[in-house]
Amino acid sequence: MSQQQRIEQFLYREARLLDDRQWDEWLACYSPQVEYWMPSWGEDDRLTRDPQREVSLIYYPNREGLEDRVYRIKTERSAASTPEPRTTHHISNVELIGETADAVDVRYNWSTYSHRYQKTDLFFGSCRCRIALGGEQPQILSKTIRLNNDYISHVIDIYHI
After folding, report:
1. What's this model's pTM, rounded to 2 decimal places?
2. Which letter does DSSP use for residue 84 in this model?
3. Which end of the chain is more exposed for a tag (fewer CB within 10 A), N or C?
4. Which one, of 137, 140, 147, lies nearest residue 34 by Cα?
5. C-beta contacts of 15-23 below 8 A and 24+ residues apart
C-alpha cells in the first residue's frame, strides 16, 4: 500500500467512525497533543489566523477538548446534539503536501450531510492535517478545518466536519 493510499484509508476510517458514532475509536485517531481548529471568516472574507486572539468556530488546543465534547455527546449533556444527527461524510482530493520521516502534511476536501428533525443540511470545506506515522496507526497531530458555508442556522459541532 502506498503512503497516499494509507493516508486516504485513515481519513476514510476517521470519517466513518463519526458517521457510525464510534466516539472512542474516533478519539484514538487524534494525538493527545492535537490542535483542532476551525477558524472563522472575517469581514474581509479571510480566515482568522490566530485562535488565541481572534474568533474561531471551534478551537481545542489539545485532545482534552475533543474528549470533553465526546463525553457531552455520549451522555446527552449536549442539548445541541440531542438527538444526534445522522451524518454522511465524504472526502475527496486528498493531497500529500509535505512529508518528513515521521509525519505527513495532508490537504483534502470534505462535505458532510447532516439530517435531524426532518431537515438535511450540507456542510463543506477543506482540511489541512499533520498526521504522525510512527505508531500502529496514523494519528492526527494538528487539524485546521476550513468551513466554506459558514452561514448556518444552528451550532456546528465535531460530527459536522
Report:
1. 0.93
2. P
3. N
4. 140
5. 15/89, 15/90, 15/91, 15/110, 16/89, 18/87, 18/89, 18/158, 18/159, 19/87, 19/88, 19/89, 21/84, 21/159, 23/70, 23/73, 23/74
The angle formed by the CA atoms of residues 143, 148 and 151, to the nearest 5 degrees, is 120
- pLDDT tens-digit readout, 95-136: 999 999 999 999 999 999 999 889 999 999 999 999 999 888
What contacts 118, CB < 8 A, 6 or more positions away? none
Alpha-carbon span 81 to 146, nearest angstrom: 21
Express each pLDDT in 131-153 by its tens digit: 999 888 999 999 999 999 987 77
